[in-house]
Design a protein that fits this description.
about 375 residues, alpha/beta, about 40% helix, binds pyridoxal-5'-phosphate
Length: about 375
């Protein structure tokens, strides 16, 4: 485990909390977590369930059926409720996909930059991460051409659209081309769709529309605003179900019962959830408008999620030191690109705009003055 890097944003967050305890005003833009809680009706349901239910080990058939309906309505994809394995967030769903889909030694391709847990979980399972450098010319995303060029063919690939840290979305035609290359070359796809529902250009497509045998990872943590409830799912093809289920009992038995009750209700709280998306869209635009005055003009197109991944190579060679300095000087906490890209990440910073609009406005004021003094 010695080559598994810590998540540097946690160190930034720790410093932010320490500064706050010393009386500083802090704006948390280091983590990708909604500042809103679960939808009100979900919380109401949870109160009722706490009073009336024993909360034993349980997997909600109603929630699995509701999720199946969600795939039909959103993507036009027909899946059976039994194909869903409810998990404690996307994190164990990813672990379950990797552990049930691949042997130790399997080579798993992924974009660099990418979510830190991809390479760390792959390494922890004694599998081999193949980090494919993806720059601005490919919107920081894997392409069908890049996958076709890997020799020998990898055993698996992790696709993320919208992606963390960039927010970029892979358009439908490219997803279809990726699915075709994977089919031809025998590459099993894990599709991380945790940021679905958070799109500012076109809605993201599910990989299932093009690759029905993909393993799909998703969660209640982002669009549904239920981070701490620890609820997510792994959606697998019928032939993979038995193998994946065999591990569930050993890893976590079931997802939290209380969260499953609340999650079922949350899926129907569209008005409240869409209001959050409207806030993120406003925050995103405010930041986009403000970045030129900070001379941060080289950014990944933030199609979805709630991130802006910006180039800061003209200002530093060490994004971790840079984020610490920025935090100490302004009280604005951000994530260093090093968390997402061990090579080029020293030249990038990630802003999360999943905060309130007044916080974004205050952050922009502080950041504009600070960056202006440096350029
Ligand atoms: C791309 C991506 N996948 C998975 C996760 C894990 O989320 P959770 O375990 O809260 O569902 C995150 C968390 O930020 C993420 O950014």
């Amino acid at each position: 485990m010695q080559d598994i890097e810590p998540f540097h944003a946690i160190a930034i967050s720790r410093l932010a909390h320490q500064l706050k305890a010393e009386g500083r005003s802090i704006i948390h833009m280091e983590f990708g977590q909604p500042s809103t809680g679960a939808p009100a009706k979900a919380i109401e349901t949870a109160h009722h369930v706490l009073d009336t239910d024993g909360l034993g080990y349980w997997e909600s058939p109603d929630l699995r059926a509701r999720l199946a309906r969600h795939y039909q309505e959103t993507y036009g994809v027909t899946v059976a409720p039994e194909q869903f394995i409810l998990t404690c967030g996307a994190s164990p769903a990813l672990l379950l996909a990797l552990i049930s889909g691949f042997e130790p030694g399997a080579r798993i391709a992924m974009a660099r930059p990418g979510y830190v847990a991809y390479r760390n979980t792959v390494k922890a399972l004694r599998q081999v991460p193949l980090e494919i450098p993806c720059d601005a010319s490919v919107r920081f995303q894997l392409t069908a051409a890049a996958l076709a060029a890997i020799e020998p063919a990898p055993n698996g690939v992790i696709i993320a659209s919208p992606a963390n840290p960039t927010g970029t979305i892979i358009e439908a035609a490219e997803l279809e081309a990726i699915a075709a290359v994977c089919r031809e070359r025998g590459i099993r796809i894990i599709s991380d769709e945790i940021y679905h529902g958070l799109s500012y250009v076109e809605p993201a497509h599910s990989m299932l529309e093009y690759a029905p045998d993909a393993l799909v990872v998703s969660s209640f943590s982002k669009y549904l605003s239920m981070v701490g409830w620890r609820l997510g799912w792994l959606l697998v093809p019928p032939e993979h179900l038995e193998k994946a289920r065999a591990y569930v009992g050993n890893l976590f038995l079931t997802a939290p019962s209380l969260s499953q009750h609340a999650g079922l209700v949350a899926l129907d709280c569209r008005d409240e959830l869409e209001a959050h998306v409207a806030t993120y869209a406003r925050n995103r635009q405010l930041l986009l408008d403000a970045l030129p005055a900070m001379c941060l003009t080289s950014i990944a197109p933030p199609d979805g999620a709630f991130y802006i991944y910006a180039y800061i190579g003209h200002l530093t060679d060490n994004s971790l030191d840079f984020c610490q300095m920025l935090l100490r000087d302004t009280g604005v906490a951000t994530a260093p690109g090093l968390d997402f890209d061990p090579v080029e990440g020293r030249h990038f910073i990630r802003f999360s705009f999943a905060v309130s609009t007044p916080e974004i406005e205050e952050a922009i004021q502080r950041l504009t003055v600070w960056f202006a003094a440096r350029t």
